[in-house]
Amino acid sequence: MSYKELIDSFNPIIYSKYVTITSYEKLMLYVALELEDKKIPLTFNYLCISAFKIFPDAFCCDDEFKEFPSIDRLNRTMMHLKYVQKGMPYLAGSIKTGYSITKLGRALAMEVKSVIDNSEVNKTIKAPVVDSHKKGYSRDYLLFIDGLEYRDYLNTNVIDFMYIWKFFKITPFTQIKTTKENLKNILNYAKEKKDKKCIVFVEEVLKKI
Questions:
Q1: Global pTM?
Q2: Which terminus of the chain, N or C, has fewer Cβ atoms within 10 Å?
């Protein structure tokens, strides 16, 4: 069978079997382990497509378009596995060269596998609705943490407060009310993602403006 045929053969796992696993990163590591077991290369596309096929409730776009994957969520999950703030990454490699599971990543993947293999199906447990209105917050959050000044902060822990005005493209210390509302939306999304670094950054900024 071709790699595509093998991936197409994946069946979705019932949500109740992984309801206690709230980390997208852990689910992706499980997917990496499944691909490795089937001798499928750990490319970016194979990992993302397989993740959506195996865990559609976790990686779908939203409740309106459940038949499509969330590109943002999949991409961010991969980045979190590769670019770890402290300690070792969970995946080694790159989009160009492909990936491999690190020792730490494999340990987490095995934990997830154990949970899934030993959990019973409970069809009364429904997957949470992925709200479409949060898509804008997701986009703003992703753009925010992709800024050069923010990436410098990840390395130095030094907050450049002027980044806020540059990000929203407004004159410093103007449109305060709107700026605070937009920052709070980014903050709330960061909290959902458990992005501690972003939470600290935005909370410190909110104290200053």
A1: 0.65
A2: N
